[in-house]
Amino acid sequence: MAKSPRIQTTQSRSGYTVRLVGAPPAPxxxxxxxxxxxxxxxxxxxxxxxxxxxxxxxxxxxxxTDGIAHMRPGSWADAFYFSVQTMGTIxxxxxxxxxxxxxxxxxxxxxxxxxxxxxxxxxxxAKFSRPTARLMFSESATISPMNGVPTLSFRMSNQRANLIVxxxxxxxxxxxxxxAEGQVFYRTYDLNLVRERVLSLSRSWTxxxxxxxxxxxxGETPESLKQKxxxxxxxxxxxxxxxxxxxxxxxxxxxAAILWGARHVDVVTDEKDVFTLDLTKFHDxxxxxxxxxxxxxxx
Length: 299
Known about the structure:
Elements: E1 7-11, E2 17-21, H1 31-37, H2 40-65, E3 68-69, H3 76-87, E4 96-97, H4 100-129, E5 135-137, E6 141-146, E7 149-158, E8 164-178, E9 184-190, E10 197-201, E11 205-210, H5 222-227, E12 231-240, E13 245-254, E14 258-260, E15 262-264, E16 268-271, E17 274-277, E18 285-287
Parallel strand pairs: 6-14
Antiparallel strand pairs: 1-2, 3-4, 5-7, 6-7, 7-11, 8-9, 8-10, 8-12, 12-13, 15-18, 16-17
């Protein structure tokens, strides 16, 4: 009888549900990598659950051996407390092993606790020391005339007070196409940007792509982009000037998040030598005036 293929279901950052069929199971090969990717809440919950589970296993062994002095007869709770004291090297002295088997279990648990403490310390240190970028992207990308030419734009901001130096952004358009043979093909097109590199990324950077005849977006409409399931994929990389290590971030805009006939509201004002950056308007957009070459109102 044929074995059913393994199916994994995950939720992507962009909201898609991804079903992976037939992937070989690898529960331990990337175990440490998986822990590093978990949130702090889930990581600490996993550490606490593992700690309690290991203590419960040793408590069961102590309970069956009945070799712990001053442990109340038939008290599993005392066996558990003794296990916690042993693993934590607390040693109150009220309970202690009095048989060879119980002493052997103490040696075994002490060895396990050394490994557990070392792994947990390494995991916590690695999560604290791992450099990450904390970038914010505008909720939508817009396409509106700029200098008479339709231009795609979106904003991103470094949410930390430091700088990401030599930041480089790459933008790609992914859309569904059908080959001459009738096969569905997901094609990726790189978009040429007005400026793809900035010396230092701080609080705000507007990324621009001119939709001219060389652009993969040329000739597209809101309807055609929706029909082709078009989406923008953004990747940003640079050097964190605090850690002096490479960091990166990514984002996606589905066709519904691309607003035609709209532009982002200005967030920068300069009055009386006072330079103001108003991040409360970071996601705000306003309609653009339609032109003969770009007749779209805000979608």
